[in-house]
Every structure is written in C-alpha cells, then in structure tokens.
C-alpha cells in the first residue's frame, strides 16, 4: 500500500503546476502609448493636419503646402505694382550694373542716361524677352510715331534706349524685326529689372492702342521666330519677365511706369505728351504683309497700264502708216550723247 501512496503524492504536483501556468498566459502586455501605436493611427494624424487653421484667412497655405520665400514668389494675374520713382539708394545699386550691346561689349547702366556723350534727357524702355510679339509691336508703333530727329530738336534734347532681358546675340535680329532706330542693349542677369521694381507675370491684360495685330498671329510669329534662330531659340530671355519705362534727366529719374501685364507698356500717346511732342495718337501702321501686297499691286497696275498704252499706240501707228513700231523704246542716256560724234 505504501507504493501506491507514494505514487499519489508524486502525481499531486503536476496539477499544481497546471494551475500556475495559465496565469502568465492569460496576462496581456501593456498597451503602448499613442505615439507608438504604429501605422493604424497614421490616417487620423493626416486627417487632422489637412484641415486649415481657423486663424488663417481663406486661400492661405495649409501646413502641408510649401510656403515660398520672398525671393521665390511667383505672381499671377494683374499685379499690384506701383509707379513710384526709384530711390536714391536704388539708383546707387544699379548705376554700375553692366548691360551688353549687340557686339557683347559691356557698358555701365549709368552711362546710358548720365554721361557727356548722351542727351540730357533719356527715356529707357525695358522690354520683355526678345521673341515677345507684344513688345515688338510696341517698338514698331513707337518707331513710326517718334523719330530721333524730333527728339533731339526738343528744347530739352531727348533720346530713347531699349533694354531687353535676353542674350546680346539676338539684338541684330530684334533691330531688324522692329525697325527700331534707337540703341538696344541686353541685361541677361535681369538685375536691373529686379532692383528697379519690375516683376514677372503671364497675364495678358486688355488690348492696348499700340497693338495692331492679333494675339494669335503674334504668338505664332514668336514661335517661328524663335525656331528660326536655331541654337539661340532659348536665349531670348525669361518669358515671364515684364518691363517698364523710366525717364532720366540730369542723372535723376523723373518719371516711372512699370508693366502690370505682358501688354502693359505705357501708351505711345502718353509718352509723346511727357516728352513734349504732343498727345495725339500715333498714326495707324499698315501691316507689313499689306504693304508688300500694295507695292506688288501698284507695280502690276503700272506694268499693265504701260502695256495697254504701248499696244494701243502700236495699233494706231500700224493702221496709219502700215509699219509696226516696237512696243518699248529704250531712251539713250543724255550724258552719252554729249560730245558723241554724229554720223
């Protein structure tokens, strides 16, 4: 009987062990803090950050929108730029900046308006890129309305200078395209534009009086003009840069106008009034295609009229004398006849 009792006592510990083991298995690990809850709580965080702050005004950037710095801002639409005169500090910053002529020679900006060899008063026009059809139309209208001789004959001798933001290699093309009689320079760095308060936009604006062509035609011509320059197609300048007009007299800026749109140049009639010419609107220019057609028509008309006249004359002579006369008789030069022996 003792062996059976010892067996019973030996078998008793296993149940005790089985009763103690379930306690650690049933115990659950402590929950982690909310910051370590894993990817399950990420959607809640993103939803909360997408909602804008109540303190921010409408259309303001949210916390996830990258905010541009002041120097990186891009403007769209009509800009709230002013026409304030550049300060003395601004002019001091720009007077030694260099501009380039058609040959690539550098000239300090100050020598364009304050030098012994220039007129006492200077109108400096800042245009957009060299392929801009709007600025090309502006210079065509300006050149047909304001002549260099008229400016120099004013009580205050005046002249005009044009500055673009492209490469100087394109200045000869631009001069030929616009028929501009005034000197043209280039500022590829666009520092003059920046320091004088001119900005950047793509807004077209309303059609000004100096535009005599269609917007679509201008755009197509600009594209083909750029492609026609080959390797210089990407050297016309910043397409978003707009310019303005500034009048300098005796080294000081006396009048300023900054463009708000890509067609926002000062009207030619306003410039004429400011310069002391008059305030009349510039005469309407004929389009270059119409001018060529007109010349061809006049030439054809004169040729056809001459042929008809010669034919009618030859028929009359033939009926009168029976001898045909040539339709065209070449006149001898009078100089050749002087002193020539007669037979």
UniProtKB/TrEMBL annotation:
Pro residues: bias regions: 27-36
Region (Disordered): 1-68, 285-343
One family name in Pfam for this protein: AhpC-TSA_2
InterPro entries: PXL2A/B/C, Thioredoxin-like_sf
Compositionally biased spans, kind Low complexity: 17-26
Protein name listed in UniProt: Uncharacterized protein
Species the sequence originates in: Neocucurbitaria cava
């Amino acid at each position: 009987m003792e062996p059976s009792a010892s067996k019973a006592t030996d078998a008793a510990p296993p149940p005790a062990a089985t009763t103690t083991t379930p306690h650690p298995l049933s115990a659950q690990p402590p929950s982690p803090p909310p910051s370590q809850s894993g990817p399950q709580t990420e959607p809640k965080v993103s939803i909360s950050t997408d909602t804008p702050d109540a303190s921010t005004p409408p259309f303001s950037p949210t916390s996830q929108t990258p905010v541009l710095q002041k120097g990186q801002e891009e403007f769209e639409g009509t800009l709230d730029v002013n026409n304030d005169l550049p300060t003395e500090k601004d002019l001091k910053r720009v007077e030694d900046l260099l501009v380039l002529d058609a040959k690539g020679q550098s000239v300090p900006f100050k020598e364009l308006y304050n030098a012994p060899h220039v007129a006492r008063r200077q109108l400096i026009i800042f245009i957009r890129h060299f392929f801009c059809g709007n600025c090309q139309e502006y210079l065509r209208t300006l050149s047909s309305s304001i002549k260099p001789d008229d400016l120099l004959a004013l009580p205050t001798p005046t002249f005009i200078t044009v500055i673009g933001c492209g490469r100087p290699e394109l200045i000869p093309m631009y001069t030929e395209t616009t028929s501009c009689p005034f000197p043209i320079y280039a500022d590829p760095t666009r520092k003059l534009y920046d320091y004088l308060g001119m900005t950047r936009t793509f807004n077209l604006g309303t059609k000004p009086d100096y535009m005599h062509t269609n917007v679509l035609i201008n755009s197509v011509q600009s594209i083909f003009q750029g492609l026609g320059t080959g390797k210089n197609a990407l050297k016309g300048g910043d397409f978003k840069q707009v310019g303005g007009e500034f009048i300098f007299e005796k080294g000081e800026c006396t009048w300023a106008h900054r463009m708000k749109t890509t067609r926002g140049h000062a009207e030619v009639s306003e410039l004429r009034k400011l310069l002391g010419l008059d305030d009349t609107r510039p005469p309407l220019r004929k389009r270059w295609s119409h001018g060529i057609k007109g010349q061809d028509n006049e030439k054809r008309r004169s040729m056809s009229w001459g042929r008809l006249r010669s034919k009618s004359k030859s028929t009359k002579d033939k009926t009168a004398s029976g001898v045909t006369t040539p339709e065209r008789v070449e006149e001898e030069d009078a100089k050749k006849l002087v002193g020539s022996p007669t037979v």
